[in-house]
Predict the 3D structure of the following.
Amino acid sequence: MTSLVSNFDEFMDGLWKQNPIFVMVLGMCPTLAVTVSAINSISMGLATTFVLVASCLLVSLLRHAIPKEVRIASYIVIIATFVTVVDYAIQAISLELYEALGAYIKLIVANCILLGRAEAHAAKTPPVAASLNACGMGLGFTLGLLAIGAVREIFGSGMLFGVSLFGPHFQPWVIMVLPPGGFFVLAGWLILFAAIKARNSSQLSSGERALEGGKS
């Protein structure tokens, strides 16, 4: 039971508690660049998740074999290998999607989320815990991209996943599909998450004060 709880915590840590976009504010290049539509957001998120899980699993398996002096270079080689796999896979599946994501597929190698997870977590934990944490972090990243991409697509084109929502008379907010739209939507989500965090902290403090008052 303790192991199950620990594994669940590892998964939820990246999914919510340390969400890469809304809590840690990492991976901003793809977050702002590819989130002009929901499908682009999900594709980039799932590609990053695959690379994250596969690389963290391999780093964890090799954590005792990789010399400390070359660990960063080794992590980059591992990450780049899986990014190459994803790059060719997306190119084979859909050229349209491949062109939409552009150079940001290859730039997954430079995403600080991956190297950070490899160095700070996977290199110090067993394979199962490392994989679950990476999976939670990747899905948290995907959900963050989807949250931004869905808002931009709805207001920027009146559609979601290519399906029209408001009919032919809708006037799109062109700014939403332009670079400033990404900043505006990201700022809105960050404000919302900050408000939720402040509210939870306030409720926790009120509960602690009430508990102390009851004891006295």
About this structure: The mean pLDDT is 88. The first helix runs from residue 2 to 17. The chain is about 70% helix and 0% strand.
